Automatic annotation (TrEMBL):
It comes from Gulbenkiania indica. Residues 21-76 form the PAS domain. This is PAS domain S-box. InterPro entries: PAS, PAS-like_dom_sf, PAS_fold_3. Pfam families: PAS_3.
Length: 183
C-alpha cells in the first residue's frame, strides 16, 4: 500500500536479534506471518493471509533484484538480499532477507520460507546506492528487458568486488551476523 506522501515516510527498524518469519505457497501468497512481521508491517493476520507477499514491496526496490531472487529460488537455491519494504501506514523498513524453497517429502515445492533480520547500516547504504542505479537502468530500458538489464548490471558491479551477490550481501552484514544474528 503506497503511502499518502512518500517524502514524509519514516524508517522503522527491527531490533537486534528480532526475526520476521513468513511462509508462502509456490505462487508467493502468504500462508504464515509471525507477530514480528505483523508489528513491523502494521498488517493484521487477516490482512496478510492469502495476499501476495509483494503487498509490502517498496517502489525503491528495483525489479531486477526480484528477477535475481526468482531465478535463484527456481534453481532450488536459497536467496539472500537486502530489501526495502513498506508498512501499512506508508513508512518503510530494511531487512536482510533469506528465502528458501520449501519441499515436501516427495521433493515437490510447497512454497517458500523467509527469515528476515535487521541488516547492517553498511548494507543498507550499499543497497541504496546500487538500487538507485538499477532503478535508473530500468527507467531507461524497455519494460520487458528492464529487470534483466538491471540484474545484469548488479551482477557485474558486485563482481568487481571479487564476489557474487550472495557473498557480497553476507560480507556487508558480517558484523551484524557475528553478534548472534545468524543467516
Amino acid at each position: 500500500m503506497p503511502p499518502p506522501n512518500p517524502a514524509h515516510s519514516t524508517e522503522v527498524s527491527l531490533q537486534p536479534g528480532e526475526l520476521i518469519i513468513t511462509k508462502t505457497d509456490p505462487k508467493g501468497l502468504i500462508t504464515y506471518a509471525n507477530r514480528v512481521f505483523m508489528r513491523i508491517s502494521g498488517y493484521a493476520e487477516h490482512q496478510l493471509l492469502g495476499q501476495p507477499h509483494n503487498i509490502i514491496r517498496h517502489p525503491d526496490m528495483p525489479r531486477g533484484v526480484y528477477r535475481m531472487m526468482w531465478k535463484t529460488l527456481q534453481a532450488g537455491e536459497e536467496f539472500f538480499g537486502v530489501v526495502k519494504n513498506y508498512t501499512i501506514d506508508g513508512n518503510y523498513y530494511w531487512v536482510l532477507a533469506n528465502i528458501t524453497p520449501d519441499y515436501d517429502r516427495k521433493g515437490q515445492l510447497q512454497g517458500y520460507y523467509s527469515v528476515r533480520r535487521r541488516p547492517s547500516r553498511e548494507a543498507v547504504e550499499a543497497a541504496s546506492r546500487l538500487y538507485a542505479e538499477m532503478r535508473a537502468i530500468e527507467a531507461r530500458t524497455s519494460k520487458p528487458a528492464a529487470p534483466d538489464a538491471s540484474a545484469a548490471w548488479l551482477t557485474e558491479e558486485v563482481a568487481r568486488t571479487g564476489q557474487d551477490y550472495t557473498s557480497y550481501i553476507l560480507s556487508l552484514n558480517a558484523g551484524a551476523l557475528g553478534r548472534g544474528e545468524r543467516a
